[in-house]
Amino acid sequence: MNRKKIMMKLTTIMLLLVLSLSLGACLGAKKEKEDSGSKTTKGTDTSNTLVYAGESEDTINPILNNHNELPDIIFSGLMKYDEKGKPIVNLAESFEYDESTYTYTFNLKKDVKWHDGEDFTAKDVVFTYEVLTKDKTLSASITSNYQDITSVTAPDDYTVIIKLSNYNAAMLDYFTMGIIPEHLLKGEDINTASFNQHPVGTGRYKFVKWDTGGGMIILEKNENYYDKVPNIDRVIYKTVSVESTKATMLQSGDADLAWLNANYAESFRGNEKFEKFDFKTADYRGLSMDFETDFWKKNKDSIGVLNNAIYKQDIVDSVLKGNGFVAYSPLQLNAFGGNKAADIYPYDLNVFNKKMAELGWTKNKEGIYERNGEKFHFTIQVREYEEERVDIANIVSNMIKEAGVEMEVVLVTKFDWDAGYNGFLYGGAAQFDPDMSYASFVTDASGNTMHYSNAKVDELLNKGRHTADEDERKSIYHEFEVAYAEQPGIVLVAYLDGNYVGISGLEGLDTSRVLGHHAVGVMWNIEEWKLNK
Predict the structure, then answer these.
(1) For residues 314 and 189, what is the distance between their CA atoms, to the nearest angstrom?
(2) How far is C-alpha 111 from the geometric centre of its chain's CA atoms?
(3) Residue 240: left (phi > 0), alpha (psi -120 to 50), or beta?
(4) For residues 314 and 311, what is the distance between their CA atoms, to the nearest angstrom?
(5) Model-level pTM?
(6) CA 133, 65, 83 angle in degrees (round to 5)?
(7) Mean pLDDT throughout 210-216?
(8) Among 38, 144, 246, 495, which one is least packed by beta carbons within 10 Å?
(9) Distance CA 40, CA 29 (A)
(10) What is the pLDDT of residues 259-279, one digit of tens each?
(11) What's the CATH superfamily of 37-62+203-279+500-506+515-531?
(12) d(C-alpha 351, C-alpha 1), whole Å
């Protein structure tokens, strides 16, 4: 079947999917509105309340949840990111670095209070980093970011000394993580503490209530914030799962701002009641393979070649409505990445067939490749409410099926890591330092959930982390991109733009920063926002 016929077939499938998903989403939106919409404003003046249609959450602890807006506005770190994504001081008034001993000395602000009125001191910083580096029971994906720390001490209440075993180029970035309070968490199991649903921070907004029945988390501005107090009085974060529900909430007036997939975002363009904020993101999608499953233990040599059978530009044009671009590297949008030499998989079915033959695969009478008596058949799980990911997975499945490979798309309500699926529809980003890839791709690192292992990748990511010269680092990460492309754990498909839609009375969003996974980071300057409704 030629590509034109393939795309006609895929377009028909897409239309059927959109119709069925839209019907389910409308019913879901109606229920969510009945459950929570009326409670948002009951008995409260909402003229200066921002209602944000966010995502489902189960914890608001910065150590456990680093893919969400809320920890960043409730908590503060020693450092924070500026509009260019560079770390600058935050809870720290200043710092010094001793190159000979790899030691940071932070001088802390003295006018900072926790949201419960207790004083913030150096003890809280020591406690936070000891949790990250010494708590062996901690279930967090970010602990590999702090493995170079050897000691954290406080000679007084407003000085913290952090010693490393080696130079770490990304350490200032990792000091942006929110500090947690010792007086509320000492002796607690961080993984299960009630604090995770009742957070107390030092940030711009303080937690008021988590209305699980109403599906919303209520915050109010911190009048005692040590820096600029926000203009907007309250933030109501709606916990929404279904993508279409967010668009429905905007249309009905039940939300003021939402990150939407490209399909829904485009429907608001040109509507004078709304403003579309287009951010660049480092957020990519791909098929992440689970190397603990038997199929990939035997066939990991045949992951990269799948790229040759996927016409990715068609996915960008159809699913993303052109709001993105074809992916070939996990560092493609990073300042240290974008090495074109890593773009080694053009769409070419002749090349695909040739490589498959070289790998020992032959087609059976059904037109499906087999090797050693086993069909090239694998399963990919996708959360059913993420329409954009479902669409990507289904199109990829149809494309590679035409090429002779069976990818079974399994829709799940939440990811099941014990069911034996061969992978999942992955999203990730490295919007700041390129070392953000370390925890995901280094063997046995804390965020390497799919058990990917590549000795060359390990060598290069360790070298990049511990190299000071920026030109040399860029060269290292360019080499990493090629090494990863040659033996990938993820079949990269596309990068997404960050499409936010807000009501016309919302002002101050700054699109100058590159956002992260799920377009996280939009609230980086929320203290400057203004709301008129």
Answers:
(1) 47
(2) 33
(3) beta
(4) 6
(5) 0.90
(6) 95
(7) 94
(8) 38
(9) 15
(10) 999 999 999 988 999 999 999
(11) Periplasmic binding protein-like II (3.40.190.10)
(12) 16
